[in-house]
Amino acid sequence: MDWESGGVLADALQNKQNRVRKLNLWDNRIGDVGATRVACMLATNHVLQDLNLKFNGIGPVGASAVASALKVNTALLRLNLSFGKLQVCT
């Protein structure tokens, strides 16, 4: 799966009839573009509780988009962004 396919999936999860509670997109190389599409979904999805975006090459732009979406999303309980392109500040 690439960023475009990830975007199509994110669009489908915005459907109000969606019942998906756990989504594992581990190692799909969606990058910042795909993460931004996922963030748009998170802003309106109130069902998804567990999202794994590990090993997707998500950098600061994509992570920032996801963080912004989490300001309005109250359903998500677990999020994994590990092994992306983020740097740890010390």
Report on the structure:
By secondary structure, this protein is α/β, with parallel strands linked by helices. It has one domain (3-80): Leucine-rich repeat, LRR (right-handed beta-alpha superhelix) (Alpha-Beta Horseshoe). It has three helices and three strands. It has helices at residues 3-13, 31-44, 60-70, and strands at residues 22-24, 50-52, 78-80. Strands 1-2-3 form a three-stranded parallel beta sheet, with no helix packed on it. Helix 1 (3-13) runs parallel beside helix 2 and helix 2 runs parallel beside helix 3 (60-70). The protein is globular.
Q: How would the global form be characterised?
A: globular
Give helix and strand order, one letter per element, not per position. Answer: HEHEHE
| Helix-residue proportion | 40-55%
The fold-level CATH name is Leucine-rich repeat, LRR (right-handed beta-alpha superhelix)
Radius of gyration: 12 Å
CATH fourth-tier homologous superfamily: Ribonuclease Inhibitor
- The fraction of residues in strands falls at 5-15%
Helix- and strand-based class? alpha/beta
Q: Count the beta strands.
A: 3
Spatial gap, N to C terminus: 33 Å
CATH architecture: Alpha-Beta Horseshoe
Query: What profile does the largest beta sheet have?
Result: 3 strands, parallel
Number of helices: 3
Would you state the CATH class? Answer: Alpha Beta
Domains, number:
1
Strand order of the largest sheet: 1-2-3
